Amino acid sequence: MAILERSTPLKIPIWTLGILNVLDGMLTFFGLSLGYITEGNPLLSSLSPFAILTIKLFLSLCLFSLLLTPFIAIRARHWRYLLLSANILYSMILILHASWLILVAIA
């Protein structure tokens, strides 16, 4: 397992980013469908909750497709740091969204 991780250093960060995107899409879908939230992204605000979920799932599939390319074997540190930064930022946004939904749901 350690050999596989060393030969594909971007595999875990790409998986993580894809999963975070799916979770965010599901939270957004349920929040919009139940009327708890409004979409803050001006590019997505005119779309239905299902369309937003579909876009999020498609983008996650695009991320997961990178796992089938030589891209995951790139050893350049800047790619790892960029993906790590994206994962940290997305995790913070996801925690914020989940907190909002929980607070609105119990209120």
Automatic annotation (TrEMBL):
Keywords: Membrane, Transmembrane, Transmembrane helix. InterPro entries: DUF5658. Residues 16-102 form the DUF5658 domain. The chain crosses the membrane at residues 12-38, 50-74, 81-106. This is DUF5658 domain-containing protein. It comes from Planococcus glaciei.
